[in-house]
Amino acid sequence: xxxxxxxxxxxxxxxxxxxxxxxxxxxxxxxxxxxxxxxxxxxxxxxxxxxxxxxxxxxxxxxxxxxxxxxxxxxxxxxxxxxxxxxxxxxxxxxxxxxxxxxxxxxxxxxxxxxxxxxxxxxxxxxxxxxxxxxxxxxxxxxxxxxxxxxxxxxxxxxxxxxxxxxxxxxxxxxxxxxxxxxxxxxxxxxxxxxxxxxxxxxxxxxxxxxxxxxxxxxxxxxxxxxxxxxxxxxxxxxxxxxxxxxxxxxxxxxxxxxxxxxxxxxxxxxxxxxxxxxxxxxxxxxxxxxxxxxxxxxxxxxxxxxxxxxxxxxxxxxxxxxxxxxxxxxxxxxxxx
Length: 338
What we know:
The protein is α+β, with helices and mostly antiparallel strands. It has a single domain, classed as BirA Bifunctional Protein, domain 2 (2-Layer Sandwich). The protein is built from 10 helices and 15 strands. The chain has helices at residues 15-24, 26-49, 92-99, 137-167, 171-177, 187-194, 211-220, 271-280, 289-297, 309-316, and strands spanning 52-53, 59-60, 76-80, 83-87, 106-113, 125-134, 184-186, 199-203, 206-209, 225-228, 241-242, 245-249, 251-256, 259-266, 302-308. The strands form 4 sheets. An 8-stranded mixed beta sheet has the order 1-5-6-15-14-13-10-7. Strands 2-4-3 form a 3-stranded antiparallel beta sheet, with no helix packed on it. A hairpin with a 2-residue loop joins strand 13 (251-256) and strand 14. Helix 2 (26-49) packs antiparallel against helix 4.
C-alpha cells in the first residue's frame, strides 16, 4: 500500500471560502470523477435490470422517516406558499408507487434532507441511490450486493488512478468487486455476540446498535455484514413484520466503511398489517391514507433499499469525515453561498 498523494483540505470548516477550495483543490476534482462514475454505473445497472428511472419532486406531505417511535432522523419542515411541507428525506413511498407503473422496479438518484446537524458521519443534505423492486427481503439484499459489486468494478475501471491518489490502495474496492455473498446476522444474534455497551435500548422492544457496536460487528465479520430482522419499533412503520416473530421486522442494514451504508427492507403487502404498524408506531394515519388506499387497490409485494452515495464514497476513498464529500456545503441553520 502506498501513501495517498491527495488529502482532504477540510474546507468545510470555513464555509464562506469552501467554493474556492473546490475549484482549486485536486481532492474535489477527483470527487467529481467518482460521483460521475456512480451515476453512470447506477443507470447502467438498473437499465440492464429493467427498472425505470423516476423524476420525482423533492417536497412531500408524507415523509418516510416520521418522528414516531424508533425514528432515528428528523424531518425538514418548510412553509411553501403558506402550506406546511416537508423536504424529502427519502422518496421510498414514491418508488413503491412507481412499481405499480414499472413492474421490473423503479429507482432514482436524488438529494435527501435531514434535520440533524452535520457531523463526521452525517450530512444535512446528501445524495440517495434508492430503488424498489418486486419480491421479498432476500431478493433485494441479493440485488444490493450485485449493485455494489457493479459500482466497485466501475470505480476500478474508470477511477483506479484517482482512488490510488486519495486512498493509497484499491484492495478494499477489488475485494468488494470480486466478493461472493456477504455475511448475514440477525439483530438478536448480533446483540448476543456483542454484549453490553454495544446495544442501545430506547424502550422495551426498541433496540439499535451503537456506533461502537457497528464497528465491533464489522471487525468480527471482516469488514462487511448484514444485520437483519431488527426490532420493529426501531425501524420505520412501513417495514413488514417478520411472520415468524411480529416483534421483529423484515429489514436489513449493510454495515461497512463508516457503519450503516445501506438500509433495506420488505414492505407490508396487506392493508391490515400496514394499519397495525401505523398504530404500533404511533404515527397519525391521516397523512398516509393515500398509501393505505394504494395498498388496498393495488396490492404488490415489494422490497427496497437506500444507499448513501457519500457514505459509499467515504469507504472507497478511505476517508473519515463525510463533510469533505460535499461539493457545495449545506448546513442547517446557516446561509452558505453559492
